[in-house]
Design a protein that fits this description.
Blueprint: E1 4-5, H1 11-17, E2 20-26, H2 31-46, E3 51-56, H3 61-66, E4 74-79, E5 82-88, H4 93-105, H5 108-123
Parallel strand pairs: 1-3, 2-3
Antiparallel strand pairs: 2-4, 4-5
Length: 124
């Protein structure tokens, strides 16, 4: 599966409509981004059940600011619409595979319970 280009207009629906979405925030001038690109693309071929998406931070500056992207590449993983991984820096292929495996293995009922507990604690 090829990667999908996301914009401010398409990111929310993509995250909402798919179980697992990995988003690579990148820019044309970024050397580490260029080195990560073939790793990300190869992983997209190996995991057709995951949406692999890219956001060009130059073209989508407002979206990048909204999501607090301060360095690139940054990889975000969403599961059932919830941000479950957010890390700057190019990952080697084995590390990307570990992230994907961990995201797939998450117990989302447990994740939602943890989020609810944190929100309750912050209100007190």
């Amino acid at each position: 599966m090829a990667t999908t280009e996301l914009t401010a207009d398409t990111i929310q629906q993509t995250i909402t409509d798919n179980d697992i979405v990995l988003v690579d925030f990148w820019a044309e001038w970024c050397g580490p981004c260029k080195r990560f690109e073939p790793i990300f693309e190869a992983s997209s071929q190996a995991h057709p059940d995951v949406v692999f998406a890219k956001v060009d931070t130059e073209a989508e500056q407002e979206l990048s600011m909204e999501l607090s992207i301060t360095s690139i590449p940054t990889l975000m993983a969403f599961r059932q619409g919830i941000l479950v991984f957010n890390q700057a820096g190019a990952l080697p292929a084995p590390a990307l595979e570990q992230v994907i495996s961990a995201v797939k293995a998450l117990d989302m009922d447990d994740v939602r319970a943890q989020i609810a507990a944190q929100e309750t604690a912050s209100q007190n």
